[in-house]
Amino acid sequence: MPRTSSLDLPSDRHIRRLSLFLAWAISLIALVMPPLIWWIWLFPGASGVAATPAPGNGFGGDDLSWYIWPVRLGAAGLSSVAVAITLYGLYHLRVLFQEAARGAYFSAAAVIGFRQFALASLVGALWSPLEHTLMGVFLSVSNPNVLNALEVSLGTDNLESIGAALLFFLIAFILAEGRKRHEELELIL
């Protein structure tokens, strides 16, 4: 009986096609995300963000006369930290999907890619409440129409993000163990 490669199985073809699609989708998201985030902070009137209440990353109304270019650039720069963390994670997740698209599910690049994505997810989850606090202080100090405020919050969304990042770490360790066992099986065969 001829030996069938796992690459010939229908389930493998579906995984490879989906992985290729996800690699392209992540590339598109990574290209669109920075300009979109910068657009929101540089032109808040056009994006509709200006109506959100201060200090929670809001502007406290539609009067944006105080929101001059140095303040706009500062807000965009502060939000760029989260964008950089996300792009780092997406790049490594893309590596995982590229490896899966070529059928190398347990390759070193796939395992490292997912581990780095898990790390970026955890750093991003920890940065999010800090960024919210810093942005609120920055905007309230810059805006003469609202009182200076310090808003610190750690909500359910933040805790869920941290939990999801820790779950990603568990999956990364499982992938590493799968890689190790895959290598052991190759040595035996």
Biggest beta-sheet profile: none
**What is the rounded Rg?**
22 Å
Unreliable stretches (pLDDT < 50, length at least 5) are: none
Number of E-type strands = 0
Write down the overall geometry: elongated
- Terminus-to-terminus distance: 18 Å
Q: Which structural class is indicated by helix and strand composition?
A: mainly alpha
Oligomeric status: single chain
DSSP helix fraction: over 70%
Please tell me the overall pLDDT.
86
Strand content: under 5%
Give, in order, the helices and strands.
Answer: HHHHH
Give the count of helical stretches: 5
Quick synopsis:
By secondary structure, the protein is mainly alpha-helical. The chain is 73% helix and 0% strand.
Could you describe the 3D structure shown?
- With 189 residues, the protein is mostly helical.
- The chain has helices spanning 10-42, 44-47, 69-101, 108-142, 156-188.
- 73% of the residues lie in helices and 0% in strands.
- Helix 1 packs antiparallel against helix 3 (69-101), helix 3 (69-101) runs antiparallel to helix 4 (108-142) and helix 4 packs antiparallel against helix 5.
- The longest helix is centred in the middle third of the chain and has 35 residues, at 108-142.
